[in-house]
Design goal:
By secondary structure, this protein is α+β, with helices and mostly antiparallel strands. The chain contains twelve helices and ten strands. The protein starts with a helix and ends in a 7-residue tail after the last strand.
């Protein structure tokens, strides 16, 4: 019997199997969707159907860098054992490379719909599920791009438990600039909780207002005179900025030196007066909603 394109599409969406495998299974099942699913399961091509929905609290964060572009992915699985396997790590790296190279991937859903080497990512993941025997789910993705002259850097900690990518605007893009970008990424990784923004302009206004109210209540409860409360609040807000703004934090390798000072020194050494951090992204395994 003739198999419709719609039937093949529906079976692919339910199983993650390839188009030709779905068409063959439907032909053998005389167009019966449920029987076709069973035939794919028998061949190990639809294990994702059985395993979909299992909790994926383990996994890895992977990054990819390509000049002025960078991608980062959190890939979830069920056990730490699978997360440490070369095949799983290779899959995470491949997904990060896909995100890095595509400007239209802004979510895990976008990633699954994308293609790599002519194969849909959803099929690639379904194949990994069948091979590794666990539910595997891209949890979240992010990509950054430095406009104008610049480069990206990154750092992965603890075998993929945490990853950071950083954008650096710089007229200098050699080894020293790359080392600087990596050092900044390492700093962001080491700072827990993560910085909220590069500088004060990036801190949400509601976060500042919440902190002001909190500091004011604390000062009042401490019995401070009304005329000095505002000065106390401003002092605590300044300290808050130093904790959440990347440029105001003490560099992890030299806590007496702020990140802003590190950039000034590097700008002189590199001869790059326009040196600046454009943005950063930090993924810690497990922060995304479990699937």
């Amino acid at each position: 019997m003739a198999i419709s394109a719609q039937a093949v599409k529906e079976l692919r969406e339910k199983t993650g199997a390839g188009m030709m495998d779905c068409k063959k299974a439907l032909s053998e099942a005389d167009g019966d969707l449920n029987q076709a699913i069973e035939k794919l399961r028998e061949r190990g091509l639809a294990k994702a159907v059985k395993r979909a929905g299992r909790e994926t609290s383990e996994g890895a964060v992977a990054i990819a860098l390509d000049g002025a572009h960078a991608g980062i992915v959190e890939l979830g699985c069920e056990t730490d054992f699978v997360a440490k396997t070369p095949d799983f790590q290779a899959l995470a790296d491949a997904l990060a490379q896909t995100v890095c190279g595509a400007s239209n991937i802004a979510s895990a859903e976008d990633l699954l719909a994308a293609e790599r080497d002519g194969q849909k990512i959803s099929e690639l993941v379904a194949g990994a599920v069948a091979t590794m025997g666990e539910n595997i789910v891209p949890k979240r993705v992010a990509r950054l791009e430095v406009s104008g002259p610049g480069l990206t850097g990154g750092y992965v900690h603890a075998g993929g438990k945490l990853g950071v990518i950083v954008g650096l605007r710089s007229g200098a893009t050699g080894g020293a600039a790359e080392s600087l970008a990596k050092d900044i990424a390492m700093h962001v990784a080491a700072h827990d909780p993560s910085p909220l923004a590069v500088d004060r302009d990036g801190v949400p206004s509601e976060a500042i207002e919440n902190e002001r109210e909190l500091f004011k209540r604390q000062a009042e409860q401490e019995g401070k005179p009304e005329k000095v409360i505002e000065k106390i609040v401003e002092g605590r807000v300044k300290k808050y900025y130093s904790e959440v703004c990347l440029l105001e934090q003490g560099f992890v390798k030299d806590p007496d030196k702020k990140i802003s000072d590190l950039l000034k020194e590097a700008a002189v050494a590199l001869g790059a007066s326009d040196l600046a951090i454009t943005e950063f992204v930090r993924f810690k395994l497990g922060e995304a909603t479990s699937s």
